[in-house]
Amino acid sequence: MNNKGVDKSKRQFLTSALTVVGAVGSGYLAVPFLAQMQPSVKAMAAGAPVEVDISKIEDGQLIRVAWRGKPVWVLNRQPEVLATLKTLDSELRDPQSNDSIQPPSSKNAVRSQRPEIFVAVGLCTHLGCSPTFRPEIAPVDLGDKWQGGFFCPCHGSWFDLAGRVYRGVPAPSNLEIPPYRFITDTRIMIGESSEEKSA
User: Fold this and answer.
1) pLDDT tens-place string over residues 39-93
2) Measured at the alpha carbon of residue 60, what is the angle toward residues 86 and 69, in degrees to the nearest 5?
3) How much is the CA Rg of the chain, to the nearest whole Å?
């Protein structure tokens, strides 16, 4: 093959130009591809901390909020409820919450930072159903041993008013306590722990 009449500078220019055009084109293709892998604004908001005003929660009242697509309960417990919790240890699978998901600030007898305010993820630890709030004592359908708590209608798991699971039910562990912290005496932030803010 005879290359005597070929202008090598034109060939080099065309090769360089095609390389640049190819790189720019690849960049235009890669940017949308990589951008779609980022979480959406809605997804980022779903994982964001949630601020809850607890100033209007009456004694014995439970409110529900959503955090990360899960129901979270905030319960204002009365002194008599707190007294009953101490009597249930022999009925519970994990009364000291040694095998439970909770921030260190909630690892105590009442599973909360302040005894009267209980915060928990409202999903049964068996298969993820949402238990019902049953504060009444010894209702006909649950029997004499029921001291108030959360009853899962899907498979019959029982939890006391500290989210601790009873023995002999399908749920394997206590209800999860999400990270949370008190911003003021009447406001809590679910999704941020007091340990994170003090670190």
Assistant:
1) 555 555 556 899 999 999 999 999 999 999 999 999 999 999 999 999 999 999 9
2) 95
3) 28
In DSSP notation, 86-137 reads: TT-GGGBSSTT-TTS---GGG-STTSSSBTTEEEEE-S-TTT---PEEE-SS
Domain ranges of the chain: 1-38, 44-198
CATH node for 44-198: 2.102.10.10
Question: Which residue is listed with tokens 């190819």?
Answer: 22
Q: How many residues does the chain have?
A: 199
**Local mean pLDDT, 10-residue blocks, the chain (199 residues):** 67 78 72 58 66 95 95 96 93 91 88 96 94 95 93 95 96 95 96 67
| Residue closest to 118 by CA, chosen among 64, 70, 167 | 64
Report the candidate in 141, 135, 181 with the shortest Cα–Cα distance to residue 159.
135
